[in-house]
Amino acid sequence: MILHFYFARRFLVSFVVITSVLGALVLLVDGVDQARRFANDDVGWAQVLGMTLLHLPQTLNLILPLIMILATVALFLALARSSELVVTRAAGRSALRALIAPVMVALAIGVLAVAVLNPIVAATSERAEQLTQRYRADGRSALSVSDEGLWLRQGNAEGQSVIRAWRTNSDASVLYNVTIITYEPDKGPTRRIEAETARLLDGEWRLRGAKVWPLAAGVNAEGAAEEHESLTIPSSLTVERIRESIGRPAAVSIYELPSFIRQLEQAGFSTRQHEVWLQAELARPFFLVAMVLVASAFTMRHTRFGGTGVAVLASILLGFGLYFIRSFAQILGENGQIPVILAAWAPPLAAIFLALGLLLHAEDG
Predict the structure, then answer these.
(1) What does the pLDDT look like over 211-246, one tens digit per residue?
(2) In this structure, are 131 and 176 located in the same domain?
(3) Whether 128 and 18 share a structural domain
(4) Alpha helices in the chain (DSSP H)
């Protein structure tokens, strides 16, 4: 038990050190990138630093598998150089038993990443997106999905429009039971439009069965209302932009994701991407365990055998390969080519069995 605690402490120290180093590097690189992005906007260094700090959790969450591989490599290289691995095996400890502590720490880190880091990433990425729209003020759309339907905001220098629809088709190009409130700068709401359907075309909404109420002061809105079989209003939105607004499941906390998926289903959107993301997040601890096992399979040997650099490079390349396969499987799942459960859970489980096979081969020949 004491030896397990010793290995766990050494692994945790390696993880913290590597996370700190990579975090500082990410801050430096992303800070330069944010300064370049907002070079033409009225944004000071304080705002740039704030944006950089908001992006940090998301980036660390993205490179967490790489951090896990490097922490494992650093741990076992240090143990091999000090001959502690040799002493451990001489005392009757097999390689698999020596891995119990690092694997348990990796599993705990994965659980914390899902339970704690995921909501932080969702909150900070959403805040970063809001600040980006505020700093640039380029009329980008904002989208919200709730039990009351689908909400959109569009606008430009001439004014803003708020759109609510009860549901949409699968590609978000047609809205049903639509209400539109238009606003002019410094004048408040100017008209209200209700329509049976609204189809998004190039630069415009084409409404069917529309009724328009003017909202000017001193005007009888109902008396001045007009009905139109077909009506066209300009739009700054595109179907791609709407899809992007709802297509970022990382911006939704894992605790809110199940209800968000249900709301998307009620609104008529395809929820497959969010379902794959939810299952992939639940499988993340096992994928981090796989990264530890993969890295240890190449580095749990004495340095006198040579080839340490090749072994480290092989472990990192294999880790990148497994990460690519995991991402590719998620894409196949999102496109409906393989089941959701298979897309999310097959890569980490297959990686674990692959690493265990390599360890058993190295241990027992």
Answers:
(1) 998 887 777 777 888 888 888 888 877 777 776 666
(2) no
(3) yes
(4) 2-37, 45-62, 64-81, 84-90, 95-98, 100-112, 118-136, 239-246, 257-267, 272-282, 284-299, 308-334, 340-364
For residue 363, pLDDT beyond 80: no
Rg (Cα) of the chain, in Å, rounded?
Answer: 27
DSSP, collapsed to helix, strand or coil, labels residue 157 as: coil
The answer to whether 221 and 213 have CB atoms below 8 angstroms apart is: yes
Domain of residue 105 covers 2-135+267-364
Report in angstroms the alpha-carbon separations of 155 from 137, 161, 185, 204, 252: 10, 6, 10, 12, 24
pLDDT tens digits, 154-164:
776 667 888 88
Write the single-letter amino acid at 330: Q
Say whether both 110 and 147 belong to one domain. Answer: no
Is 254 domain-assigned? no
Percentage of the chain surpassing pLDDT 90? Answer: 32
Looking at the structure, tell me whether residues 131 and 32 fall in a common domain: yes
**pTM, full prediction:** 0.77
